[in-house]
Amino acid sequence: MPLVxxxxxxxPARAGCSGVxxxxxxxxxxxxxxxxxxxxxxxxVVLQISENTAKYHGGLTPLGLASLALARGSGVPVSVHLDxxxxxxxxxxxxxxxxTSVMFxxxxxPYEENLAATRKVAAHCHEAGVWVExxxxxxxxxxxxxxxxxxxxxxxxQAFVAATGVDALAVAVGSSHAMLTRDAVLDxxxxxxxxxxxxxxxxxxxxxxxxxxxxxxxxxxxMTKVNISTHLNKIFTGEVxxxxxxxxxxxxxxxxxxxxxxxxAAEVARLLEVLAGH
Length: 278
Fold this sequence. Notes:
alpha/beta, eight-stranded parallel β-barrel, 8 strands, 50% helix
């Protein structure tokens, strides 16, 4: 199946009051698991590679090309997305590689600087037909760039979208990155007000800390793209730990990475069903 631009996924999802899952790729087993889970569910999905993960691998190209290949070979619509990029150079690299979307995160800058930098990146990406997500307000859980308790205001969001021309907006509504428990308290009223204020997809970051019930409520209130990473990493690591505990003499990494990949695939399929309202 051809690589699918993210707006071709979020457009129909948003119109139908359903959500699309966006899951972070840390290594190739993650990408394989996410695509397998999406194929099992028969639903579209977004593969995300963050700037931090690109740094971990020494660059975006190796994991990026692998993810693009898996997306193109998938039996369901898959897009490949650059997540939380603060570097304009990395955004340009993603565009050159063939990523279908990027998330440019200038949220730690003062508002006017965030606006100017985002507008510049959006113009560059749109010339290449690449979809752009930005962030306004600060989602908790990341030191420096994000401060817990901050919320995105609908009027400011409306002005920011109009001034930058972005295609989607990540908003701060109570979730927090890297949560290990699923007890985040979302402001569903604010989500609804943001949905009414701006005519483009809203993105929920830090969704690992949100329960199934509240993920469904968030989508019903107006969220379209739902980012999940830590929750899947917990499952992956837990399966690896269990396998190595049961057989500490194992040397072949496929013996524990394979089962971890399968466990993540099953959870991706389940979460996609939750987000789709099935």
